[in-house]
From TrEMBL, chain A:
Biological processes annotated in GO: P450-containing electron transport chain
Superkingdom: Bacteria
Organism: Novosphingobium chloroacetimidivorans
MF terms (GO), sorted A to Z: 2 iron, 2 sulfur cluster binding; electron transfer activity; metal ion binding
The protein's required cofactors: [2Fe-2S] cluster
CDD domains associated with the record: fer2 (cd00207)
This protein's name: 2Fe-2S ferredoxin
Coiled-coil regions listed in the entry: none
PROSITE patterns in alphabetical order: 2FE2S_FER_2
Keyword Acyltransferase: no
Automatic annotation (TrEMBL), chain B:
Pfam families: p450
Alphabetized UniProt keyword annotations: Heme, Iron, Metal-binding, Monooxygenase, Oxidoreductase
Highest taxon, organism lineage: Bacteria
Family: Belongs to the cytochrome P450 family.
Stated name of the protein: Cytochrome P450
Length: 106, 413
């Protein structure tokens, strides 16, 4: 199992156990994590599954594809470590990963 | 567990003019008999916000039912029927995914942002022409906007806008299930098909192919790289015309209708570009044109009800934002309303068919609203308006307004 911790805008945290091979978005939805809207169901076309990956984990979550970067332009305020979490595949070496959920997905 | 057929369901006359004038009240009434699903002559209607979210996102259990509409209209084997059954949204899952992935990068927010200057120029030119009239039918004005943008994107000759607009008007009514419209639907479709075939062929033969960098260049280039058959490329361009026309026009028209009652907010739209986005988000919650048709691809059980395979179901995106069990003060227009992530409005559908053009649509509506509010001062309702048929591209029919034209004020730096 891969442990993923979501930090909400109010500072509260929730750690879930996810199966390797799932996307972080699928894992979040399965556990009902608030704020991961994911309207397009993981097709990298809605931009509503945005998270901010904690600095120490960014090397392991990898970098965003060109399509993902183009999608992220929908958000007015850009932030380091931002990713669309439907594009992050969970693997064992990601256990313990921490991401922050934005206040809004728009 | 009960099957759908065993339920006592309210029956809705969705094709009636009285229904189109006030579907919200009809669905609220229907809720008293069943809280999430109703019946009609053309299929079932899932109208509860949470039920739509729960079901429509399950792409593995539902398939788009545009072929079902062709069947109801008795148009199998006709050019319009073929197109409707083979357009992007109707393709089998693997072909759909391949085609959508091929073109996805041309429909991102980044690409839409790059088009904003062209969108601003287009609406400004239209306002230069229309504003001196002091009164006009706003729906007609709004209709010219998305179509001019689309013509610009694919380098089509502007003299053909009126003819193609009339084609798109007709095609927008195709899903109203009125069979008497069939001959004009065919005529409208064929005119659009001829234009699209011609502009693609001309661009391919042109010495400046690939140098304009407009959407048509990009689509041809991307299509060729991805070995997309010519027929599919043509269908895609036709689909962009159809998908972006009444949708954008009806949203812009309804948004102005809302703002006619709120001059304070309208004035703010003239000053505040970012606020226009919020106004449109809220407007899209209160109204949007779509109810999307699906067939169940397998037996589906929901809320202890069995929906058998191959049942036709419409999801009412258009009134989903009025669901009082999901939205507080559902009928109140409040652009500053905080959006709860659990009840984000769904005007662009959900899942893998979620509107490919949504970022272009949002950008063009925002640019248009900001310029309109600067140029048409103090707009007032100047006559009556009606409603378009509810199934298909629902919206206002006509919106006569009178206003004081203002010269364009320079935007603050
Ligand atoms: C405010 C304007 C618009 C609204 C409300 C809207 C709404 C929608 C909805 C609800 C769907 C899903 C249909 C379904 O699930 O059966 C859809 C699909 C689609 N829309 Fe839009 N649309 C708008 C503008 C546009 C524009 C401007 C374009 C093209 C540039 C466009 C292109 C598409 C395409 C290609 C699809 C099919 C996607 C797929 O099947 O993968 N739309 N739209
Ligand atoms: S779920 Fe839509 S972009 Fe990630």
């Amino acid at each position: 199992m891969v442990k993923v911790t979501f930090v909400q805008p109010d500072g509260s945290e929730e750690t879930i156990d996810a199966a390797p091979g799932q996307s972080m978005m699928e894992a979040a939805q399965a556990s009902g994590i608030r704020g991961i809207v994911a309207d397009c169901g993981g097709n990298c076309s809605c931009g509503t599954c945005r998270v901010f990956v904690a600095p120490e984990w960014r090397a392991r979550t990898g970098t965003a594809s060109e399509l993902e970067l183009d999608m992220l332009e929908m958000h007015e305020e850009r932030q380091d470590g931002e990713r669309l979490c439907c594009q992050i595949t969970l693997a064992d070496d990601l256990t313990g990963v921490r991401v922050a959920v934005p206040k809004s997905q728009f | 567990m009960q099957t759908l057929a065993q339920l006592n369901l309210p029956h809705l006359a969705v094709e009636d003019a009285a229904f189109a004038a006030d579907p919200v009240s009809h669905f609220r009434e229907a809720r008293k008999t069943n809280p999430w699903i109703a019946a009609s002559d053309i299929g079932y209607w899932v109208h509860d916000y949470q039920a739509i979210r729960d079901l429509l996102s399950q792409d593995d259990k539902f398939r788009p039912a545009y072929d079902g509409i062709v069947e109801i209209m008795g148009a199998r084997g006709t050019p319009w029927g073929r197109f409707t059954e083979e357009q992007l949204i109707s393709l089998p899952p693997e072909q759909h995914a391949a085609l959508r992935t091929t073109f996805a990068r041309k429909f991102t927010p980044r690409f839409a942002n790059q088009l904003r200057p062209m969108m601003r120029e287009t609406i400004t030119r239209m306002l230069d022409e229309w504003a001196p009239r002091e009164r006009f039918d706003f729906e007609e004005f709004a209709a010219n906007f998305p179509i001019t943008i689309m013509f610009t994107l694919v380098g089509a000759p502007v003299e053909e806008i009126p003819g193609i607009r009339s084609s798109l008007e007709t095609l927008g009514l195709a899903f109203s299930m009125d069979k008497s419209r069939i001959p004009e639907i065919h005529e409208g479709y064929e005119r659009l098909e001829r234009l699209v075939q011609r502009i693609i062929a001309e661009r391919r033969a042109s010495p400046d192919k690939g140098t304009r960098g407009d959407l048509l260049d990009l689509l041809i280039e991307t299509g060729d790289e991805g070995n997309v058959p010519e027929r599919q490329l043509q269908d895609l361009v036709i689909f962009f015309f159809v998908a972006g026309y009444d949708t954008s026009k009806n949203v812009l028209t309804y948004t102005l209708r809302l703002l006619l009652d709120r001059p304070d907010l309208y004035e703010r739209c003239a000053r505040d570009h970012e606020y226009c986005r919020k106004v449109l988000d809220e407007s899209l919650r209160l109204f949007n044109p779509g109810s999307v048709p699906r067939f169940t691809d397998q037996d589906v059980v929901y809320r202890d009800v069995l929906i058998p395979k191959d049942t036709m179901i419409w999801f009412t995106l258009n009134i989903s934002g009025r669901d009082e069990t999901a939205f507080e003060d559902a009928d109140t227009f409040d652009p500053d309303r905080e959006i709860d992530p659990a009840t984000r409005p769904i005007p662009f559908s959900l899942g893998k068919h979620m509107c490919l053009g949504q970022h272009i649509a949002r950008a063009q509506l925002q640019e248009a609203l900001h310029q309109i509010a600067q140029r048409l001062h103090d707009p007032q309702l100047a006559g009556e308006y009606g409603w378009r048929p509810y199934p298909g591209a629902w919206g206002l029919k006509g919106l006569p307004i009178a206003f004081t034209p203002t010269d364009k004020t320079p935007e603050p730096a």
